[in-house]
């Protein structure tokens, strides 16, 4: 068995915790000695031991002289937990195989350097692209100083997100909606505009399967119209943040008494300043933001060039005149925004397209 085999195992371990470790990356670690796995672990959530520390604890004295496989460069700094590099050196590990370097300037390259200085053989780049994709939200959060942004919506073959009377339940199939809950599970927060709240009264929780947490629910509500009796205020199933431009102290106090956090943002041209919104969410450790609609909100993110991934569920139906994405300021076809297809799946008649920036 080669390095790739054991790194594949480490990546699978990391995938198990995808969406549960924010604002930390998801990491898997496997320790091998004489060709056999003697310990394996993943990082459970922020504040708990990192994958390397957990695996070394499991291996104990057997870790001496072993090879350690890890999906992200071991940390060298004190954060919520002690540096993993120190634990690796202390355990007497002989060789470390790393999928990809950490983009964090506090760590990048320094973990490898420390290990080499301690006489440990280091190999970097095994399944590197797979590891970077697994933590693309973390890489964006660190390098761009904003959440990784996924736009998600369902539409008919002729491009409608809802009928002209705003009816949209359900365009996509049950199987598609279950997968959409997987997208929610992997996000730090789910964002919708106030019109979606007023029309649909969504819960924005993970309900299609058992999951350890619900994402934070975020509502863009410039005029503070959110109903006090809506699910996002009353159900207490997850934290809710309302972002507004209106300083209505009575309404804000009432929302805060229900446990809802209210943030103020600049309002211009009929919309909240999205860059200011994202800056606020970044400082609240929202690492991965899933934007679910409605059409106006999705359009505003696209117009502002604020997205990293687009996930579309295409249903085999015609609606005709309906609700669609708005004006993107494009006059000529050659100026259209072009994306690169990354995944194609089929869900009970629907086509799922996952696309990223070219």
From TrEMBL:
SUPFAM superfamilies: Cytidine deaminase-like (SSF53927), Dihydrofolate reductase-like (SSF53597)
PROSITE patterns listed in its UniProt record: CYT_DCMP_DEAMINASES_1, CYT_DCMP_DEAMINASES_2
Protein's name according to its UniProt entry: Riboflavin biosynthesis protein RibD
Similarity field: In the N-terminal section; belongs to the cytidine and deoxycytidylate deaminase family. In the C-terminal section; belongs to the HTP reductase family.
Keyword Hydrolase in annotation: yes
Any one GO MF annotation of this record: 5-amino-6-(5-phosphoribosylamino)uracil reductase activity
Cofactors named for this entry: Zn(2+)
Binding locations of substrate: 168, 184, 204, 207, 292
Catalytic activity, reaction form: 2,5-diamino-6-hydroxy-4-(5-phosphoribosylamino)-pyrimidine + H2O + H(+) = 5-amino-6-(5-phospho-D-ribosylamino)uracil + NH4(+); 5-amino-6-(5-phospho-D-ribitylamino)uracil + NADP(+) = 5-amino-6-(5-phospho-D-ribosylamino)uracil + NADPH + H(+)
Binding of Zn(2+), residues: 50, 75, 84
Stored PANTHER family: 2,5-DIAMINO-6-RIBOSYLAMINO-4(3H)-PYRIMIDINONE 5'-PHOSPHATE REDUCTASE, DIHYDROFOLATE REDUCTASE FAMILY PROTEIN (AFU_ORTHOLOGUE AFUA_8G06820)
Function: Converts 2,5-diamino-6-(ribosylamino)-4(3h)-pyrimidinone 5'-phosphate into 5-amino-6-(ribosylamino)-2,4(1h,3h)-pyrimidinedione 5'-phosphate.
Domain of life: Bacteria
Active site annotation, chain numbering: 52 (proton donor)
EC annotation from Swiss-Prot or TrEMBL: 3.5.4.26, 1.1.1.193
Keywords of this entry: Hydrolase, Metal-binding, Multifunctional enzyme, NADP, Oxidoreductase, Riboflavin biosynthesis, Zinc
Residues at which NADP(+) binds: 154, 170, 196, 200, 294-300
Domain CMP/dCMP-type deaminase span(s) in chain numbering: 1-123
Species, as recorded: Thermocrinis ruber
Keyword Hydrolase found: yes
Pathway, per record: Cofactor biosynthesis; riboflavin biosynthesis; 5-amino-6-(D-ribitylamino)uracil from GTP: step 3/4; Cofactor biosynthesis; riboflavin biosynthesis; 5-amino-6-(D-ribitylamino)uracil from GTP: step 2/4
GO annotation, biological process: riboflavin biosynthetic process
Cofactor note: Binds 1 zinc ion.
């Amino acid at each position: 068995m080669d390095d790739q085999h054991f790194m594949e195992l480490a990546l699978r371990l990391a995938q198990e915790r995808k969406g549960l470790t924010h604002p930390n990356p998801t990491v898997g670690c496997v320790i091998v000695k004489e060709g056999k796995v003697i310990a394996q672990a993943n990082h459970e959530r922020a504040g708990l031991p990192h994958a390397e520390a957990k695996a070394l604890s499991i291996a104990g004295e057997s870790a001496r002289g072993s090879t350690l496989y890890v999906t992200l460069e071991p940390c060298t700094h004190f954060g919520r937990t002690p540096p993993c590099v120190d634990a690796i050196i202390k355990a007497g590990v002989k060789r470390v195989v790393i999928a990809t370097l950490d983009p964090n300037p506090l760590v990048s390259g320094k973990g490898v350097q420390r290990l080499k200085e301690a006489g440990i053989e280091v190999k970097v780049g095994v399944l590197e692209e797979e590891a970077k994709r697994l933590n693309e939200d973390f890489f964006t959060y660190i390098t761009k100083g904003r959440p990784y942004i996924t736009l998600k919506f369902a539409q008919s073959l002729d491009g409608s997100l809802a009928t002209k009377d705003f009816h949209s339940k359900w365009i996509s199939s049950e199987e598609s909606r279950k997968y959409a809950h997987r997208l929610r599970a992997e996000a730090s927060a789910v964002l919708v505009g106030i019109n979606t709240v007023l029309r649909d009264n969504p819960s924005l929780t993970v309900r299609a399967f058992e999951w350890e947490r619900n994402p934070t629910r975020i509502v863009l509500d410039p005029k503070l119209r959110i109903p006090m009796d809506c699910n996002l205020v009353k159900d207490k199933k997850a934290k809710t943040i309302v972002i507004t431009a209106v300083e209505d102290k009575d309404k804000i106090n009432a929302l805060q008494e229900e446990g809802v956090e209210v943030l103020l943002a600049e309002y211009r041209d009929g919309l909240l300043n999205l860059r200011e919104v994202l800056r606020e969410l970044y400082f609240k450790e929202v690492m991965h933001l899933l934007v679910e609609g409605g059409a106006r909100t999705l359009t505003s993110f696209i117009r502002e060039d604020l997205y990293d991934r687009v996930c579309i569920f295409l249903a085999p139906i015609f609606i005709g005149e309906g609700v669609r994405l708005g004006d993107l300021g494009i006059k000529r076809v050659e100026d259209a925004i072009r994306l690169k297809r990354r995944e194609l799946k089929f869900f009970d008649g629907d086509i799922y397209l996952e696309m990223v920036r070219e």
